[in-house]
Amino acid sequence: MRRGVIAVALICAFVVLAAYYQANITQHLDYPRESEVSANYAKYVGQNVTISGSVVTTGVGSFQLNGMYGTYTILSSQAVQRGESVTLIGTLLPGNELRAVKMFVSPQLWGELVYVRSFIALIVLVVLFFASWRFDWRALVFRPREKAREHNPIGEQKVE
Amino acid sequence: MDWMAHIAFAFILCALLSLRWPVFGGRNTVLVMIGAILPDIFKLYLPLQLLHIDAQDSLMLFHIPIGTLLVCGLCALLFEEGTRVRVFLLFTFGMVTHYALDVLLIHVSGGLMLLYPLSWDTWALQLVRPDNWLGTTILVAAAVLVWLVLRVWSNRRVERAVSTNHS
Lengths: 160, 167
Fold this sequence. Notes:
The complex is a heterodimer of chains A (160) and B (167).
Chain A: H1 2-24, H2 34-39, H3 41-44, E1 48-59, E2 62-66, E3 71-75, E4 85-93, E5 97-106, H4 108-132, E6 133-136, E7 141-144
Parallel strand pairs in A: 3-5
Antiparallel strand pairs in A: 1-2, 1-4, 2-3, 4-5, 6-7
Chain B: H1 3-17, H2 27-35, H3 45-50, H4 56-59, H5 65-76, H6 84-102, H7 134-166
Helix pairs in contact in B: 1-2, 1-7, 2-6, 5-6
């Protein structure tokens, strides 16, 4: 019962803070993002905005970036390759165009490897966790496994 | 930064701290490692993006210390009574290791909003690329090395104790 009350209180606190964040974040951004730009494009023309996406086509002095809400032509002398992830700050021009001011380019393979490494880490973590802990379905709590010491990553267990 | 780097970093810290404070060792290490990836629950926005759902702002609180603390509290409630405070503190320590690594990352704009809701300021040291593989490799290699050294050291200690008892 007490556990339920605490859980509800924590969830309520989380929802309130998340709602407050979502309602106010646009006023505290360094630069408007694609979601703000797409909602009112004309308002942000001439201002610096930040857009993220993947490169779909490249040309001389420009490339096309596929964001979440549309495709943008980026005017930049920096060389990029198709498939690369780009996050940039740029001056918004009419007609879905931006003149890049600052860019961060991530090669496609590097970006994909982050997910591969994270997935492997998740598997390792799940295995390590269930080697040491078991879920008690009656009490609905995790309890230490009796012989967890044999499977422990460090091997010493003095605290119960 | 990827989860492999986060759990390797948490493991190294726990392995070293457990030499002095055993509470960081054994099965508690994995709780710190879980705490170290809890803030990244917010990355659920990535698969949602594939479905054209922009949930980044809705989920961002997971990646803000106050939000992660609440999640640590909720997760600690899943453990048996009497251990929950310790579990919460271990998750929290893992969370701190997460932000300690993430604050090193390069951000084109913004950074970590560490003091929300007290402040909307963001922090980033702009030192490491988020897709950096070298840092992860170094951390994983260091974690393996620490594990091996502690294993050998622990075995020798046991052997010495056994031989002392025999003599």
